[in-house]
Each structure stands twice: as structure tokens, then as C-alpha cells.
Amino acid sequence: MIEKEFSDVYVFDLRGDQRTSGEESRKEGGQIFGSGSRSKIAITLLIKNPSKKNGTCNIHYHDIGEYLSRDEKLALVKEMKSVSYEKMLWEKIVPNDNGDWVNQRNDNFNSLIPLESEKKFAISTHSFFVTHAIGIATNRDAWIYNFSSKLLTKNVESMIVFYNKQRVDFAKSKASEPNITLDNFIDTDAKKISWTRALKKSLDKNIKIDFAQNTLDTCMYRPYQKQKMYFEKMLIESPGLWKKLFPSASIKNLVIIGHGLGGNKPYSVQLFDSVVDLNCLEAGAQCFPLYYYEKQDKQSPSLFDAAGESEYIRRDGISDFIYEQAKKIYSSRVTKEDIFYYVYGILHSPEYRTEFANDLKKMLPRLPLVDEPNVFWKFSKAGRELAELHVNYENVEPHSDVKVEGAESKYYQVEKMRFPAKDKKDTIMFNSKITISNIPEEAYEYVVNGKSAIEWIMERYQVTVNKDSGIKNDPNDWADEVGNPRYILDLLLSIINVSVKTVEIVKGLPRLKF
């Protein structure tokens, strides 16, 4: 601990953290070392005074200020020169019990009920959920995801063929050359394969991999961006618990998705009905299910088991503990679904996100069970409405005020959508023929993972080529997948209205006081 080693610490915070986005990024200002830096930069002076024997450390902090350019920051550094400069107003920092210097956590947060259980599938847990999962980490996204099932199949089959050849050749080489090492043997050409720790381990054990057509699934890769994925554990570095949440394509489920720990973006939350990629939200998507499923060991379930398919038993994601607590406070008519939607509603509360902004960057959410029954039901109802919007976003009608020009051309191919200018977001140039205009300003208030939902569509639905593998990923292929040439245009129009409706619901949430 620095405060135990030194008598005085001076931290001059120059900001510049470009891992943030939107307004937060603008506040951070220019990067001190230009485009070569993305992290926050600080000048830190550590002073050890042997004459101070009481072991106390004085921590002094100065924030250079918001919205400053790189040149303005460097000019201030040059002007100030020394910690004793008269305009250098130092704030004295007293670390809290968590060791936070700045952006300190709120003591009230620990008095709330955690969403996650201490152990997975802990039935007796005193948390909202019995279990949770992190998003899927493939560690080879370019190979495992694609807008096109055909191209995805081709890519995966090609990689599997190459892997199996390497596997056979390595086994032969080991038999004749016992001292040969795996890392010296394998071909690391990124256009043929993407190696990871787990795949190397499989090769070393001489485990054969076969392509399985029935493992193609639909995944929420980024907010409101679906792709096809090859969901087979041999080629996914960290598949997590998702086979317990979605054991087959015919089994339905809902999952609340929040940020992981250690991020910089303001907290946001999503709800979807499919598997989710780890990086769908910042710092590793944390996912809380309505249900989870267990494989049946017997011919028929007991009276206490809810059967989905005959092969699986459905279990509740919401704990019995929170269910009993809710019934005592709000009436016996409360269901676990009501509580699930209450969680989704309250996680959208602006007061909650503001009050616990620092906590939500360092810890998973903790929530209250509000005292007033009518407030609980309002949050639960709003959560249901938000869930309906966010799960069925593709079917939401366009906003009545939004205008579309050029659609009669029936040219719906997209390469990269653009605004006419940075400050003109009421208009989007969809492609060379189609322009969307009169987009309501409030639509951009719906921010997910540091960016408006609209801008997520603009960013993610563009043609890309992976620089390492050379694999092309074309969103227009998804229109072919779903049999709707207008899919991307319709999606953008729907998301505009989803955004407006989300903002409207959030503004109508009950005010929370802590």
C-alpha cells in the first residue's frame, strides 16, 4: 500500500481516458501523448520523510479539469511547474475502507441485497438470483461469428480440417521425436486457424474435432446486433453456463445483462432471449436468467419440477429467499416473474445509477426491495414494458415522425451508415440512395454501453474484414438469413422508436430516495 510506504503523495490527474465514450469522453479531454495513449494519465510524486514516525500519509489530489484539449493541458502543466504553485489547489484525500482514493463507493450499497449468489446454483442463497453467467468468450470471434451461416460454416470447417491435420502430424512427430514441443511445431498462420490455450491443449491430447451442423446458433454479439455463431465447446475458449440457460434452440429463456467489474462507462443494462457474447457490455457481460435448465435423470419430473422439453427440468433463476421476502412486503400474488421484471425496471432508475455510479463500476449490482407495494408494482410493470421492447425490438413499428427518402429505389445494401455532420444527428445517410431524417433528439438519450442504441446499429452494421484472418463479415448477409432485403433499414427505424419509447418509460419510473 502506497500510503504505508510514503509520508506524502501528490497526484496531478491529467485525465484523457479515451476508453470512455460520449459525454464522459468529452470531459476527459485530449490524450496527453496523442493518439498513442488511451488511458488516464497522472503525474504522481511520492515523498518519504524519515522524520515522520507516526506512519500517516497525506494524499493530495488535483484534477486538471474537464473538456480541455491536449495543448491546453500541457500549457497548464508548463505554467504550474511545481506542487507549491499558488493556483494548484490540492484536495486532501482520505481513503475509505475499500481503499478507494477518488470515486469512492457509497456505504449504503452494502446494505442492499446482491443480485448474484456467492455460489452458483445455491438454492438457499440470500440474493435475488440463484445463479448468473458471464457472456461467451470464444477468443476467435472472426472464425466463430458471422452474419452468414454459409460463410460461418465454410470458415469453421476449414479451421477444423487444418486443426485435425496439425493434430495428426504432431502425433506422428512426437512418436519419432520425443523432445518436440507443441509451440515449435504448430503453424500459426492466422489465415488458417486461431490458436488458443484450450485448442492447443486439445491438440496435445490428440483430440479429434468434427464439424456439427446443428451447433449453429443465434447470439447477441453487441447491443441489438445478432450474428450466427458456431456454439461447440471445443472451439469456444470459455462457453460458461450457457448450455444450462439455453440447452436447445427450442427452449425459451430471458436474461438480464449488466456490466462487469472495472469498466469506465456509465452502468447500463439489457434484456435478451438468446446467448450473449462476453463483450456485449463493458468489462464482461454479467447475465442473470429468468430460468436455468437441468438434464433429467429420470423418466418423468416430480411435482416440483417444471418440464420444458421432456429432456430438461426448468428451474427458477429468482431465489426462494427473495420470493418469500417479496410476498411478505407486497402480497402473496407476487410471482418470481414479477420480481425478475422489477429487477430490470429498477436497474434503469436514473437515481439508482447516479447514487451508486462508483459502486457499479467496481461491484455487481445490489438492489433494495422498496418499502411501498405500489412502487414495487410500478417498477415491475415498467420492467415488463422495457423487456417487451428490448426482446422484440425488431418488430417495433417506426416512429411516426421519422422520414425515409429513397427507399423506393429498393437498394437496401449498406456499407457504412453516416451522419451528414458530427452535430447533425437528426439525419442518417443509410446508403447512397436512402436517407433517414427527422430523428427525434430524445432517441439519442437511450444509451447502452456508453453509446446510443442508434449509433450501435450504425457502427455494427457495416462491412468489415478481419485484418488477421482476412475473413469478411457482411451485415447484408443477415438480410438474406432472415429473408428480408430491408432488414437493416427496418432495424434502424425500429431502434429509433425503441429508443424513444425506452426514454419515455424510464422518465416515468418512480423516484428513488436513498
In terms of topology, how is this protein built?
Layout: H1 2-5, E1 8-13, H2 22-28, E2 42-47, E3 58-63, H3 70-80, E4 91-93, E5 113-114, E6 133-134, H4 141-144, E7 145-146, H5 149-176, H6 182-185, H7 197-204, E8 216-222, E9 225-230, H8 242-245, E10 255-258, E11 269-272, E12 275-276, E13 286-289, E14 291-295, E15 306-307, E16 312-316, H9 320-330, H10 336-346, H11 350-355, H12 357-362, E17 366-367, H13 373-391, E18 403-405, E19 428-429, E20 435-437, E21 447-448, E22 451-452, H14 453-460, E23 464-465, E24 472-473, H15 476-482, H16 487-507
Parallel strand pairs: 1-3, 8-12
Antiparallel strand pairs: 1-2, 3-4, 5-17, 6-13, 7-9, 8-9, 10-11, 10-13, 14-16, 15-16, 18-20, 19-20, 21-22, 23-24
Helix pairs in contact: 10-13, 13-16, 14-16
Please provide a written account of the structure.
This protein is of the alpha+beta class and 514 residues long. Helices cover 31% and strands 16% of the residues. The chain has 16 helices and 24 strands. A four-stranded mixed β-sheet has the order 2-1-3-4, with no helix packed on it. The chain has a four-stranded antiparallel β-sheet with strand order 6-13-10-11. The chain has a four-stranded mixed β-sheet with strand order 7-9-8-12. The longest helix has 28 residues, at 149-176.
